[in-house]
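Pilot study result, target chain (196 residues):
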Amino acid sequence: MLIVLTGIDGSGKSTAASALVSDALAEGQDALLLSNHAGRRSMSVLAARLGVQWPPRLADAIETTFRVVNVLISHARASRFDGLVVMDRHLFCQLALREVRGLPRGHLLPWLISALPAPDAVIHLDVEPELAHQRIVARGTDAETLADLVALRDAYRSMPEYPDFVELDADCPPAEVVARLARIVSANAAIRQSAV
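Predicted structure:
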């Protein structure tokens, strides 16, 4: 079973994905965590050190290249794994970033999304931007502004794929987010089993 997690920065994607897989392994299940990062944090750190701001198209080109490579590798690994696969981020994330930057969706990412094996569920961790911003400030590794997070939330919600996402309220403590996530995964597993 393939589960994809999306959400704005600070929504708890990586924490939830790691905890979900750890819990599944602790229960004796086969589970695999795959991350599909685009190198945004590294690029932000480098830009800050150089005192520059990447042009939106250049930033998108670099991030898209990293994201596509990671997603293709992740799907290849998932195809050889019999168990629960949780992907932290996907190509949907890059499409949302393009919307924020005022760039066109293009043809490659939507085509890849349709060509790759469809996830059993794309679960979107929905969180209020103010809370997400508090979490980002607390961890001190990113420089996303509140306005950035609001724009990214709106970008996700405007995507044509969004109505097919499973929306999970992530405004609660991480343990509750993981519990809710586990219930969604269990429900999907039951549906998948009944279809066999």
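One observation from the pilot: Strands lie at 2-6, 31-35, 84-88, 121-126, 166-169. A full batch analysis is planned for the follow-on phase.
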